Amino acid sequence: MDLFTLHHGSRPLLVSLPHDGTHVPDAIAARLTASARRVPDTDWHVSRLYDFARAMGASVLVPTHSRYVVDLNRSEDDTSLYPGQNTTGLCPVRQFDGSAVYADGQEPSPDEVGARVEAYWRPYHAALAGELARLRDAHGGVVLWEAHSIRGELPWLFPGRLPDLNLGTAGGVSCSPELAGRLAVALAKQDGYDWVANGRFKGGYITRHYGRPELGVEAVQLEIAQRCYMDEASFAWDVARAASLQDVLRALLEAALGDL
Prior knowledge:
- The chain has helices at residues 26-29, 46-49, 53-56, 110-139, 177-188, 205-210, 239-257; strands at 4-7, 13-16, 59-63, 142-150, 165-168, 195-197, 217-225.
- The protein has 260 residues and is an alpha/beta fold.
- A seven-stranded mixed beta sheet has the order 1-3-2-4-7-5-6, sandwiched between helices.
- The chain is globular.
């Protein structure tokens, strides 16, 4: 099985969807709890949600494997993104609700984690870095759009209700003030969704690591509450809700491109 698909676009925009994959190899799946085998913490349907991006000229990078195999949006040394808060790691052993991913005694060893990094994590990041370099060299700059989604209420991870749209720019470090400003203007023009910048989700490893505005790479993460486009209980796609959201996402990607 291929580890990812990469569509090479013509405009200086790369949409990365590191948690879209659902495949778990049989040898790993056999060790998971019954609830974890449903891979409930998938960023469900995000590649479908952003399917318009190819027609815009964007590059699109989509993995095949689940975050339960290895989380592509964590550092290879598994440094916590949010020290002092509940979070999941490089090869998660806890689901987003705090329950176990693995049956008792079946968690991956450090050696197995290292092997998964080599087999799955490094190829994705090599493709990501290579496509960013190609687009930056061709256009003089590039925007990396990290596309994510999550259930809107997860008490183990955050209190209360997550806003509909959650922009993360590593506290303003991963992109220029001009790009952040354009996104704020685009969001202010719509009234269907509430939003926040650098709230609970400030951007994961990919946003923080690759976002280097001074080097011509700007990165933004958008974490979407899944209620905006699907049924969170059944994971079912909602055509009407998704269509409304896609209009806003399209406007955001055009704003992110700006004059590039």
